[in-house]
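Researcher: I've got a protein sequence and the SMILES for adenosine-5'-triphosphate. Could you write out the 3D structure of the bound complex as structure tokens? I'd like something to compare against our soaking experiments later this week.
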Amino acid sequence: AAKVDPSQYRTIPAASGKSVDGGVVTIAMTPGLAPNYIFPYPPAEANGAVIGNDLMWRTLYRADADGKSNADTSLATAPSYSDDDRTVTISMKKNSWSNGKPVTAGDVVFSLGILKAAVAQSAANWAFYTPGQFPDGVTATAQGSDTVVLTLEKAYNPAYLESLLQQLVVIPSADWSIATTGGPVLDYTDPANASAIYTFLTGQSSDQATFATNPLWQVVNGPYSLKSFEPTTGSFSLAPNKAYAGPGKHTLTQVDFKAFTSAAAIYNQYQAGTITVGRLDSSYSAKIEDLRKKGYNVYAAPAPARSDPLVINFANTTGGFDKIIAQPYMRQALQHLVDQPGYIKSRGVYNGAASENYATVGLGSAFPPDFGDKAPYPFDPKAAEKLLTAHGWKVDKAGTTCEKPGSGSDQCGEGIAQGQKISFTLASASSPSYVGARDLAFSSEAKKIGIDVKVVSKSLNYMYENYTNPGAPANTNEWAMQDTGPLVMTSYPTANGAFNTDGSFNLGSYSDTAADKAIEASVFGSDPKALSAETTLLSKDLPVLFLPTPDNLIVWKSALSGPPDTFEGLLKFIYSPEQWYFTEKQK
Amino acid sequence: MTTAHPEMSEKTDVIVQTATAARPLAAGAVLRALRRSPMAVAGASMLVLLVLFSFAGPLLYPTNQTDVNLLDALLPPGEGYPLGTDPNGFDVLGRLMLGGQVSLEIGLLAAVFATTLGTVYGAVAGLAGGVVDGIMMRFVDVLLAIPFLFFVLIIAARFTATPLTLSLVIGGFSWLVSARLIRGEVLSLRVREFVQAARLMGARDRRIIFTHLIPNTFGVIIVNLTFQVADAILVIAALGFLGFGLSYPVTDWGSQLSSGVVYITAGNWWLIYPAGLCIVLVVLGLNLLGDALRDVLDRRR
Amino acid sequence: MISYLLRRILISLLVLIGISIVIFVMLHLISDSPGRVVLGPQASAAAVEAFNRENGFDRPLFAQYVDYVVQLLHGDLGRSYKLNEEVSVLFAQNAGRSAVLSLSGLVIALLIAIPLGILQAVRRNTVVDRAATGIAYLLYATPSFLVALLLIALLSQLVPLFPAEASQSTSPWVVFTDPRAMALPLITLALTNVVVFSQYQRSAALEQLGMDYIKVARAKGAPERVVLMRHLLRNACIPLITLVGVMIPTLLAGNLIVESVFNYPGLGLLFLNSLHREDYPVLLAYTLIGGALTVLGNLLADLVVARADRRIELSR
Amino acid sequence: MLTIRDLSVEIRTGERTVRPITGVDLDLARGETLGIVGETGSGKSMTGLSIMGMLPSGSTITSGSIRFDGEELAGMDPHAYRALRGRRISMVFQDSLTALNPTQRVGDQVAEPLLLHGLARRSEALRRAEEMLALVGIPRPSERMRDYPHQLSGGMRQRVMIAMALIAEPDLLIADEPTTALDVTIQAEILELLGRLKEQLGMAMILVTHDMGVVARHADRVGVMYAGRLVETGPTRSLFRSTRHRYTRALLDSIPSLAQDRGLELFSIPGSPPDPAEMVPGCRFAPRCAAATERCRTERPPLEGDGGHVFACWNPVMGATAVAQRRALPLAHAVPASAEPRLEVVDLVQEHPVSGWAPKGRRRTVKAVSRVSFAVRAGETLGLVGESGCGKSSLGRMLVAMDRPTAGEVRLEGAKVSGVRRRELGARRAKLQMMFQDSGAALDPKMTIGTILREPLAIQGVGTPAERTERAIALLDSVGLGPSILERYPHELSGGQRQRIGLARALALDPDVLVADEPVSALDVSIRSQVLNLMRAQQRERGLSSVVISHDLAVIRYLSDRVGVMYLGKIVEVGATDDVYERPAHPYTAGLLAAVPIADPDAPAPAGAERVRGELPSPLDPPSGCRFRTRCPLATELCATVEPTLEAVGTGHDVACHFPLQPKTAEKVGVQTADADRTETEATA
Ligand SMILES: Nc1ncnc2c1ncn2[C@@H]1O[C@H](COP(=O)(O)OP(=O)(O)OP(=O)(O)O)[C@@H](O)[C@H]1O
Ligand SMILES: Nc1ncnc2c1ncn2[C@@H]1O[C@H](COP(=O)(O)OP(=O)(O)OP(=O)(O)O)[C@@H](O)[C@H]1O
Ligand SMILES: [Mg+2]
Ligand SMILES: [Mg+2]
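Model: Sure. Here is the predicted complex with adenosine-5'-triphosphate in place.
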């Protein structure tokens, strides 16, 4: 198997060729990510993945791969802030719904009202929600049909607020603010009505058989509307929305999203040439050259705002793990055992298709940590061993033990008893395969200095449900670390949800006053540098261990062309087929 | 998958039950008869070969199966690695030996567990007869009707697989077939005249069970055990393929095979075919031996 | 006949009730608080409790079991929260495809296995018989997914005759409309079944061949073809009927593997995906239906056998 | 019409080569019946099958010729052979249950030969089949046509088989043990039927059997086979009257018959038949022959003789046949008529529930035994005879407290032993022992003979292990076996040896009562006599009270002092053996006796009227009144309404019949004693 040289795949060919009218694009969806919902604000109990991302209903601001709002595809122009940042004025651009009605300020107010109704019913109903924060304490008013004014109780860092507005899907108030089919249009500003509307719309969305036929869902503001949906697999087809006036030639006659159950199945389809656009599992990175020969473009890059943490459970008391892991030197020693360059090079893990990453903000971020590319705790087993010895541990391949209990600087630390061993469980996701491989490598490295890491393989879903301290506190002592794959942040990649003491995504009960302060500053302060400071601090304190970030491998037929950034967007699942076109007539 | 063996499966006892007990089993005579059966010789040689390979192999060909070797991952067969390396840089040949130990152990443990449980349950039901037998066998019907693989998958998804739990789970479901088999055997033995003769002489149940019933079902039990081992190994393989196998540091042929399957299109054949061959050989060996054994025992009826 | 039928049905019903109890107990052992599973980690404890109360999951176990049975009787198999759909609807969408695949696989297997088994029995211990038995042993010892993968490697990659993926069309009739795409799944299913059936048919036929009525038929001057077709075939197939009935769980499991390897959207794949999603309502409904099918299969097989072989009702 | 010369067949199975028949010469004229007799494995069936061209796979005709109507059959083209089979040569097989296709209607099976040979079209063939069924004596043939084989009784099935063989009106019929599995009553009917049809259709018949009585009555000529050779052939009369071959003689001497002197021991042939795989240079019978000389062992005797009576023996029996080797049995010690009954049976009832319900919601039951009473005195042997299914075994099992009676009781020395829990039974358990029919099934295959014989002693805690072994050796000695057998397993013994072990085991605990259920019916003639002699000797020596169960009247006659005749769960006649056999009082007894074929061609053929006709009615709902009335030539209205009770027709000879064949006397021995006993025990209880 040839080793992959990633530099060859880091560029996207410029838009080229002559556009041919028509053609159907078939997009392969990542296994396990098939949608089951259509209403853009799915309740938690639907476990919803929404059809077509934002191709049918656009968000107020639409982000590019780099997280910045795209001026062309957003529904409004850049917001303007008052001096105290608490009043935000947003001007709507001229856009219209598929039924001809304009997209208005009222629609934005309606959308926010529905979002509020959703989180009022359950905090779990919006993934970006932290109780007490957006949309709580945010009042939206429409001034005329094209100006929205947001009044905030508490000022947010403008970059952070904009990242949230990038998640605000705008839905049609004129057609959807009803509580029964064919019922009267209600005043959505009344929270009781909003709640009834929300209940009605989620109810309508629970009947999958009617997704493509329910007239409600045909009112869209994005470039496409739903043509058909296959409930058993989650495959679906989109038809162009003729009323869409955004950028792009909009020449494709149809866009098919096809569900798959395994990476192998997708690979087979590339071989057969039946998929136009999709991703390639990294276990096939050695096959890139083959695919190119078969007429595919391949682009590989790490996804922005992504980090790959080995999540630590600070509350696990099994074997005194909580006391041991509370020691910063211990986490540093463990990070020294993570061989990021080795994993990247290894054929068995990334086969070259990954990059070193030591920060929560991800690679190439606009808010980089101040240590730049240099690892704070690079792979160095010797250093790890030295750290342990220096803190009173007797390093022994057969089992390292604490020799000097106590809280002195050369002692093991508070609460660690004499003779204490370091032994814990690492739950490793059963797919993709590189996750298991890197965890094994880590465990094997730890064993060499007498740390016993038991790797157990679990399905992703199982871990999502059972291995989170906020959600399943009863299971706290079952896992000490878990590797569930990436942590993907919003375009303003603060670790607010993940590492804030009471963040809703704080899976491992990490709690640090300095970190809390830094996060507070990056969320609510106005300092553009606050986020850099936050990520620097986190990278040094190690709330998690950092693993390399794999490159996403994007594959598309070379007969398909379009602006390079529309392909780059695929790294973050941002699809823009309306800007794509075929350069050859399709069969 | 589990109940599908052409002849061992429980249907055998349902349909073509010719459950008369075997004639004496002077072990020597059986061994002599087996030695004359080409099937038995082939089966036994495969098994001996694989057992030697798995348990004695590591002595002749020691490899490091604990330390992940990132640099040497996924090497094709060549110098230093006669069968290449796996994604973690483990020597595949050495890993096959390790996996063989675990596979054989699980298979045997599961089969022993299933056979013991099944024998006791079947014997009790067969001896009790009447309503007790009816209830006990309906319970077996119920469990048999629930697709085994689904059961195991649901459980395996929930609990981490270790060799011990895996054997218990597999054994915990495959005893049903043995139970039916043994019950049928006991039922037919119970009315056999030599058992009645013993009763006539005043023998108690205990004596009848231990001196007449058990020795006479022994052959059936041994044959059943052989098939159970084979089936258990196949089940582990299927579980592994569906993603519910064992994980580092232990491994078994099924898990090896299934983790290799990811690489089938990537051309890393050495991750699949050797492990596949091992499974095929061990199951084939066990089935050949079991069938030969049954033939020999049948012939002495 | 009638009393035999009633007795068989009664026993089947008992077993069905047993199955529903076992499955219900499993459901509770696996997830005692469905609310948490449904609402996810972020939901508050209060919300979880409310969900459980609304859906009756806080009631006494027996009451819940009664509810469960009543639901089942109304054809309500529960709702998959993960797929946001009624399980019965999901099954309705998938069952056809799986059924057509299984049945075609089964029919092909039987069409091959019955003549093959009889041929082997008639030509016992000849090269043909030995070869067929040898292949059967070999295939039987090969895990079915490996059979599938080897077929892909051979017939799709080495000699690209058939696609490696099954047809993705949603029509249940793809087996007929798109036989090329369904060739490999069908071959896999057929192969794994033929192995079992033919060996079984062989020993059943051997047993019948030893019966005097075969001799009698020959003594009547019947040519070999008539002996086999008119006398042997029917009698030698009777055990196979029972086998097919009993093998339903195995057939379902076979589908699981085949559908997964060939990415064929049927019940097996649904089950597998649900397994990875931990979607218990789907898993348990599938298990329940599998159990019910097994009971039904056994019952049907017994009745067919009782019709084909009138001795049965007397001997029970 | 059929000429077989020097026929030899070889069967190869794996590395073993078996020669089932060697150098067989045989002639058969049109319209003639040739009986072939011989022990099991002597090659009778193989001879039949080679004529049919249907030898098992792996067999070859190594030499000789089979000429049928001038045509050579050996090595005939299979196609031509097929045209012959079923049309010109037909065969009836022994086992009627597996010889009919279980899933095809009887009518279709009978009609099939006509269709196969293109002799008729379907509707015509079915019509002929129906006629044929009527001809073989099947009542209401049009209804039976649509039945499946399992719906017919054994006798009916055998008739169907015959209909099937005869429908194409063949020239030659080979009947291979056509009646072995049937009761004597039905056997007689079937054989008669075959004879009649043979006349009607003018065909020749080969009747294969191991029963000398059958050939004596039904064959024109007889061939005796031994170990693959036809050792003696001749016209029936000549063969029986002036037997030449030593084997034939021995065979005839070892058969118990209804006519022989009971005070003489049966002759038994020592040893067992040779392995067909072994080649012996001389006469194959030599090792077992008392008259064998050196020449017999080295030189094969040629067939010689005249007048169609040929034999292969160096030292033939000369002159009129005399009973030479029979020993007189020690005189039966007289059973004092006044002796207290040791075993008593009072109103014993056994009903087996079967599936289904009778009207009025009661469980349907098989009335296996219905209110049977009798007594057996010390040292006395009671024989029980009756057709298959009349409840003999059910009764026997209750006698040894193996099954609980539905009602009534069994008493041993006045104390109740039936329906008693094992603990209460205590030591009396050991006093009731049984000998089983199937010697193979009755011995634990996993135990050595030593262990088997020691087991009863071990269970009862008798003696030390060494003493037990000693006792086992003594037991073996008493059944005529040496101690070397102790370490062997049952399958390493011959059937006769096994049956003797069964007897030894039953005697191990010194029982008072021994029940023997069909002790010899699974054994071949030559071995049978050994076991019978032994049983009789033991009964006398030990003063056992025994009950011997058999459907073979000759066996019962040989072994028992008194005999009870059972019919459908009832004892219809009981009395001293000689009395009952000489002066049967019940029409059923008379019919049974008349049906027994006697190995003497000059024995008078029984009058047709005495025959028991038809078949046993279902024990599920037996006929009202006298149960025998449906088959009784003398039955009247009375028999249907009033059930006859046992009444005396002589001293100790009772019959339950309204119209007994012997005049009734005033005494009512059996019933009276039983009644008196009952009041007595009731009083003491
Ligand atoms: N298929 C076979 N293969 C090998 N040996 C056989 C086969 N069939 C019969 N024999 C042997 O051939 C010999 C003659 O058998 P045959 O059936 O003719 O005996 P028989 O006189 O009809 O006995 P029976 O009274 O038991 O029917 C026996 O020793 C038997 O074991
Ligand atoms: N366990 C049982 N259940 C039901 N019916 C039975 C049972 N045992 C015997 N019978 C029936 O009772 C009747 C008498 O049977 P039994 O075995 O006593 O007859 P038998 O005279 O010994 O016959 P054979 O000569 O065939 O041995 C038969 O009709 C038989 O079918
Ligand atoms: Mg014969
Ligand atoms: Mg009997």
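Model: Chain B has eleven helices and no strands. The interface with chain A takes residues 66-68, 70-71, 73-76, 85-89, 157-158, 160, 243, 247-248, 259, 261-268 of chain B (CB under 8 Å).
Researcher: Great, I'll pass this along to the crystallography team.
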